[in-house]
TrEMBL record:
Source lineage: Bacteria, Pseudomonadati, Spirochaetota, Spirochaetia, Spirochaetales
UniProt GO molecular function: oxidoreductase activity
Ranges of residues in domain NADPH-dependent FMN reductase-like: 1-152
Entry protein name: Flavodoxin family protein
Keyword set includes Flavoprotein: yes
Positions of transmembrane segments: none
The keyword Flavoprotein belongs to this UniProt entry's keyword annotation: yes
Signal peptide boundaries: none
Alphabetically ordered keywords of this record: Flavoprotein, FMN
Stretches assigned to coiled coil: none
């Protein structure tokens, strides 16, 4: 079993990464492999609603890692996305990346997911609400912890002092591993995944 952890911060080794590292450590202790993907500092295009991904299975923008990340996800059984809070919302590059990742991807349904955020002070719960919607629309079981999945600090050393935040990350890792094992045990015993109907799209204009 393997979990992909996406660092949506421009800082490869900052607060968000420290939180993800704590989760990954517990996953590894529970015999779950992990792989990190860093969005980084290169420009990330927003979705332009061109429809190319529905025709080809790939996003038309191929130079910022979205398509590569989707290929990695095909071999993973779980996903954790992390982002810093900027102006009381997840970082713009992260949401642009996730918009395209989830819309163009086809390997998310029935794989457990969780979001992690980091902030100096405020905006964490609003950011979690926004990130969790990616899982809710993708038929992904949401993994919880013993508190909302957040850490606080202006830098990595500050996060080290957030004992409750790091404890929340550890519990998240253990809960993710537990859910992955439950799903695998169910599949191994013959319990199939839920039936999925063909998508029905409606609008509110008659």
């Amino acid at each position: 079993m393997k979990v992909l952890l996406i660092n949506g911060s421009p800082h490869k080794d900052g607060c968000t990464m420290r939180a993800l590292e704590e989760v990954a450590s517990e996953l590894n202790k529970n015999s779950v492999e992990t792989e990190f993907f860093h969005i980084g500092t290169k420009p990330v295009a927003g979705c332009i609603a061109c429809g190319n991904c529905r025709k080809t299975g790939s996003c038309i923008f191929s130079d910022d890692g979205v398509n590569h990340c989707n290929r990695i996800m095909k071999d993973c059984q779980g996903l954790i996305i992390g982002a810093p809070v900027h102006y009381a919302s997840p970082a713009g590059a992260a949401t642009a990346f996730f918009d395209r990742l989830f819309y163009s991807g086809s390997s998310f349904a029935f794989k457990p997911g969780a979001a992690v955020v980091s902030a100096r002070r405020a905006g964490t719960t609003a950011s979690l609400d926004m990130l969790n919607k990616y899982f809710l629309i993708s038929q992904m079981p949401l993994v919880s912890s013993c508190y909302w999945n957040m850490v606080h600090g202006s830098n990595k050393s500050d996060v080290e002092k957030d004992e409750e935040g790091l404890q929340t990350m550890r519990q998240l890792g253990r809960n993710m591993a537990w859910m992955l094992k439950l799903i695998k045990a169910g599949l191994d015993s013959g319990i199939s995944l839920p039936e999925v109907e063909d998508k029905i799209r409606t609008n509110f204009i008659r």
